[in-house]
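1st attempt posting a full record on here, be nice pls
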Amino acid sequence: MQKFKFKLDGLLKVREFKEKRLKVELGEILTQVQNVKDEIKKLNENIVETYEAQEQFLSDPSGGDMVKFFPRFIKTKKADIKNKENLLFALEKKFEQKKTELGVARGEVKVIENLKEKKSTEHKKKVEKKFQDDVDELVQIRRLLKETKS
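the predicted structure (as tokens):
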């Protein structure tokens, strides 16, 4: 009896590899998104701390040059936040694109897996039919041998 051999196994492996690669890329993008969100949170915390420091600083007598520092610092932090939000938007867009690619890749893998399963089932049926035919043939031979002996 022949062992089942699927001719498209190589293609299946390539498509499975592509699917795994896309999953890894999605994971990396999610990590980047989380890092950017953490950076935005940290920048917002820095702004709050700066306002608190400014209030404390203004309650004490101080020079005019230091008073100019706080608005500039806050303006810079807000610009950084805006840049991070733009980066976050780009990463989320890239994530959606990769998710779509992953869906297509999964579909391609599933089609080939279904085809492999179908071919495997056909092969098993052929093997079982051949086995049954062989058994039937042996039974007939035994019957003929018994009839010829009697």
